[in-house]
Amino acid sequence: MPHTIALVGGTGPEGRGLALRFAMAGHRVIIGSRQADRGASVAAELAASLPSADLTGASNEAAVAEADVVVVVVPYEAHRPTLEGLRDELNGKLVVDGVVPVRFERGPRPVDVPAGSATEEAAEILPDSTVVGAFHNLAADVLLDPDRAVDADVLITGNDAEAKATVSRLAEQISGARAVDAGPLRFSRFVEGLTILLIGINGRYRAHSSVRISGLEVAR
Ligand SMILES: NC(=O)c1ccc[n+]([C@@H]2O[C@H](COP(=O)([O-])OP(=O)(O)OC[C@H]3O[C@@H](n4cnc5c(N)ncnc54)[C@H](OP(=O)(O)O)[C@@H]3O)[C@@H](O)[C@H]2O)c1
Questions:
Q1: How far is the CA of 74 from the centre of ligand 1 (A)?
Q2: Of 36, 81, 105, 199, which has fewest CB within 10 angstroms of its CB?
């Protein structure tokens, strides 16, 4: 079933990359921004390479209002204020959090999140939304190359089985991606932390690495 997917903070590399992949899968995609015209110009830029795509831009508020699935891809420092500002618009919606609590000081370092993880923080801020964690470990540079398979597992956390199934289907529409149920929201800290490890590996190997979980063939 095609969704209308809003990307909050969708003008950054991760939002652009996911927008491109969701549009390629046939979903209606709205790139959200603090400035509607910036959202529109980023969407137009992406749509130019994908003429059949339903890909537009808007303010974060307008994008969320139109969507049934909202993917949050802002820097961690913007996470709480952004979600608090959009709380009413996000009521009743499926919110997919892809935010990594990381700061850079001579390399990537974890930010201590009192809730345990950005995804759990989102669930605390948005009690009337269904929050799922996903897409943290997919590198923007790879997502942005439409001819490249991502060769990655998408680790999905959440407490709502139906919402996780919806996000799994979205993840598996990205070429080369496999969805893996990574457990309840309380495991989100490990998934988010993996990205910090990957950023360090990327620096040392000049790569855009991701993760694969082995040994699942029998279990799935
Ligand atoms: N880049 C990657 O490869 C990658 C991979 C995995 C996960 N992630 C995670 O995905 C998230 C987005 O990554 P990114 O590299 O795309 O980030 P980014 O470029 O730093 O930020 C994304 C967008 O967030 C908005 N934003 C920036 N500061 C803000 C603020 N103070 N308040 C509200 N909105 C603000 C901006 O959009 P407007 O100015 O248009 O509002 C910006 O274009 C991060 O949490 C990151 O850790 C990134």
A1: 4
A2: 105
